[in-house]
Amino acid sequence: MSATIISGTEIARAIRDELNAQVAQLAEDGRVPGLATVLVGENPASRLYVGMKNRAAAEAGIHSRQITLPDTTTEDELLALIDELNRDPAIHGILVQLPLPRRIDDAKVLLAIDPDKDVDGFHPVNVGRLATGDPDVLAPCTPRGIIEMLLRSGADPSGKHVVVVGRSNIVGKPMALLLLRKAPGGNATVTVAHSRTADLGAVARTADILVVAVGWPGTITREMVKPGAVVIDVGTNRVDDPTRERGYRVVGDVEFDEVREVASAITPVPGGVGPMTIAMLLANTVEAAVRRGRG
Ligand code: NDP
Questions:
Q1: Which of the listed residues 142, 197, 234 should we mutate to test ligand 1's pocket, taking the one with most ligand atoms within 8 A of CB?
Q2: Among 101, 104, 205, 284, which has the highest number of CB atoms less than 10 A from its own CB?
């Protein structure tokens, strides 16, 4: 068997086309969704991510405000900016790019964002809404994107056993909570594995759907996958590759070439989960704007 490739690039494109139409409709009613991104310091990777997010927002017709602050910005200055954005009626989504400089407390900053503008879904109020199944949640973008990928590729998790490998607050835990919801895209039986799991292979092999978010290449090999399983690879790892001009290539956590021989469907890296994350940031921003309009 050779697995079907679930293209995140194509699914994200389709979602972004739908969002373009929705944003155009909102704009006709004079309601343009607004996204503010805040970058502190000069981290090149963060600068790249923020740039991609702003370009994607602008392409969707979302009003985007990119705020870049110097590395010397104090916690109080950043909190004052968030307070201003919380009160700005043209801004429906606020994203503070992490990591922040060491002397600024990430948790304090995330806590200052209005939960209804928290398009990253990291505020404890949104974590609580997710845990309690509140439909008003703004869910974290990566796991939300994975649910969309599963649904749109015909792998509805309802009634399936899903094993999530990884328990981070950004991917693993919210992934498990979304899969558990009594709602479309949920209703799965969920197992969460992590670095202390005794026999990862034995646990992973019980999965109808295997979601892997570890950050280590080669974590999942062929014999760890049940024949016919759907495999979602969240990992984004740089490995040296002297044959490439830039000296490296990006791979996931799954041994793609061997696992595709046993899985029924698999996401590639790159071109899998990554593009979905940005599409879901836009979706969360539009959703936040629609809700504000209703309120
Ligand atoms: P974290 O480092 O925060 O979490 C990694 C998790 O993997 C931890 O729970 C850890 O367990 C677990 N783990 C580590 N080693 C093993 C092992 N040998 N067996 C089983 N579990 C293990 O990473 P993130 O969740 O933030 O990210 C995971 C990967 O996904 C990274 O490669 C990241 O770059 C990528 N990513 C990709 C995104 C995208 O849009 N494509 C978005 C976000 C992340 P423990 O808790 O016990 O330490």
A1: 234
A2: 284
